[in-house]
Specification:
The chain is an all-alpha fold and 371 residues long. The chain is 79% helix and 0% strand. The radius of gyration is 19 Å and the shape is globular.
Amino acid sequence: MKRNTALLSAGHGSVDLYQGIVPVLLPFLVAERGYDYLAVSGFVLAATLLSSVVQPVFGLLADRWSMPWLIPASMITAGLGVALIGVSSSYPFALAAIGLTGIGVAAYHPQAARTARSVTGGSHVGMSWFSLGGNLGFAVAPAAGPLLAYSGLTATPLLLIPAVVGAAITVPLLRSGGAARLRPRELRGVDDWPAFRTLTAIIVLRSITYVGLSTFLGLYVGQRLHLSTGASATTLFVLFGGGVIGTLLGGRLATRDGRLVTMRWSYAVAALALAGVALVPTAALFVFVAVSAVALYVPFSLHITLGQDYLPTRVGTASGVTLGLAVSAGGVLAPALAAAAKATSLQLVLACLAVLPALAVLLTRRLAEPT
């Protein structure tokens, strides 16, 4: 079981690496191609909109058929989209390439999350390790910054390599005894759709907060502290690294205190830390970035297990929504956030994001632990 969990976690990292690379690319797209805030927000929209719409569909398919081949295939698709960004300077071509990455990400998560639930037995700690792989992918994504700073966007084809490695790592799982676990099986229980809808609303609030923060943080810190493009990209290391810590904490805190209590405290801390990011004028804001990242990622794996427990007969569908439609919903609002930043300031937009975790705290009061 540990071996299969490790393989799934590694594969998860190779996919979510490409979600993390999108905000890393934005400062370079601004610098090399002269795009404004609204134009670069279109890349975030392209990366997330298709994923938001398509991922629940893949969840429905995962509930009906076994598609283990989809896991490595989706990894390659996600990497290929990012690799094509530097092939052409055409804006529509770049949007289509990022959209291809979104489809790859959408295809991966429902099947992989269903598999992870089977392999780990649905434990909080086990699912946190699966989620950790994805967050590690996010965390190492800014490593592409120095490569792009040195070679420019023409180096993006090299970014296909992690996808190939991830697929090669995961294929042994499909050939081992763990592959049998991928087959859909009859599940019993009562689906609690009202609770699942409330949980989805909470995840949407988190998605808007995190996507807004990750999209504009590099640009904001660069302006605020007068850093170079390459240096400001390293800010995302702090953001994504904090996410790794938060994911590991989430499973352990939920085991000790319960999922809902853990979620309430984490979102309350996130609201305060985000206010600090927007208001602190010195390099100390990095501390608030780290705390924000930890707090926003503590509930991440808990959302997955709660969604699967609220819909016990539709695990694939629950996974598709919690990891797809709801998680990427923030990308749909990226252009609106960009327009607000252009009309006012990045600082004001980041300050307003602090309100959303506070609303999530209130919504958790409407939930109860699934039986």
